Amino acid sequence: MTENPISHDNILKGLDWDNPERRLEIEQERLRQRARQYAVATNSDTDAAEQGETLLTFNLGTERYGIDVMLVRGVRSEQKITPVPGVPGFYRGVINVRGQIVTVLDLRYLLSVGSPEIHTPPTEVIITQANGLRLGLLAHKVNGVENIPHSAINPIEHLPYSQGITTERLIVLNLQRLFEDPRLMVGVSEA
Contact at 8 Å (CB) between 88 and 76? Predict the structure, then answer.
């Protein structure tokens, strides 16, 4: 049994790759295939609309909170927080984040939840940005990112800065509304 040797020249001639019209035709067909692939709605596109909220979840004291992950700019281990005199108690101070001064809030004081004094100090800072403000939020533990369906979030009236709470007792905060709180404007006189 004799094998026919493979002729690379015959293969290249068969592909006709040196022919500019053939090359253009192949490239255009590839582009058409890609366009068809990108034009097809994927399940993840339709699922994303139905999924609801993508939240960064964290613990603060005995409470679990979630904030819109698109408003999070970073998470860092607590570094030295420099206190600022003459500000309300919910302002813990400021930190330096890559050359920018960021104000750090303790939501336990701002939202008047629980007794902050009985818990260990928070060890993480979540850098957020909403309504033109960049603020750090203290957290005891950052848990990660979760997708919460809109149907799982039940509104609660007594917490004005929340979108609601889930059956797992996750409080979904509305940072845009929270950052509009007039108490956050220190040193601004109303004229």
Answer: no
Whole-structure pTM value: 0.68
* CB neighbour list of residue 72: distance below 8 Å, 6 or more residues apart: 56, 126, 127, 128
| Residue 90 and residue 110 in contact, taking contact as beta carbons nearer than 8 Å | yes
- Tokens representing 149 are 């369906």
Q: Taking a C-beta distance cutoff of 8 angstroms, is the pair 54, 149 a contact?
A: no
How far is residue 157's CA from residue 25's CA, in Å, rounded to a whole number?
Answer: 63
pLDDT at 49: 47
- Which of the four CATH numbers 2.40.50.180, 1.20.1330.10, 3.40.50.1110, 2.60.120.10 does domain 52-184 have? 2.40.50.180
Q: What angle do CA 158, 164, 168 make, to 5 degrees?
A: 115
